[in-house]
């Protein structure tokens, strides 16, 4: 599956995701600017992304725990998600998202 990622500088990247991997892991392993401090344990919110509106239904709604973590960042929007909570699958082939400023490493 392919994931289209726009980074904080506006640059576009096309990443190859593996089924069952967390989207955060794909973005991180490709070396993009994502902190993902807790490694996917849902306790940091530094894997914050904005999901393209066309993909919101396919990605699905965040859990209550994820929403609580998103409430802790200042740049949250209605299409905010934590990328460690999105699993790669064929249904998400072509997924488009943008890295949030609060996900940057520094
Ligand atoms: S990596 Fe920490 S919540 Fe996603």
TrEMBL record:
Record keywords, A-Z: 2Fe-2S, Iron, Iron-sulfur, Metal-binding
Lineage: superkingdom: Bacteria
Annotated 2Fe-2S ferredoxin-type domain residues: 1-103
Cofactor requirements of the protein: [2Fe-2S] cluster
Gene3D superfamilies tied to this protein: 3.10.20.30
Alphabetical list of InterPro entries matching this protein: 2Fe-2S_ferredoxin-like_sf, 2Fe-2S_ferredoxin-type, Adrenodoxin-like, Adrenodoxin_Fe-S_BS, Beta-grasp_dom_sf
Keyword RNA-binding set for record: no
Family per similarity comment: Belongs to the adrenodoxin/putidaredoxin family.
Name this protein carries in UniProt: 2Fe-2S iron-sulfur cluster binding domain-containing protein
Species: Devosia oryziradicis
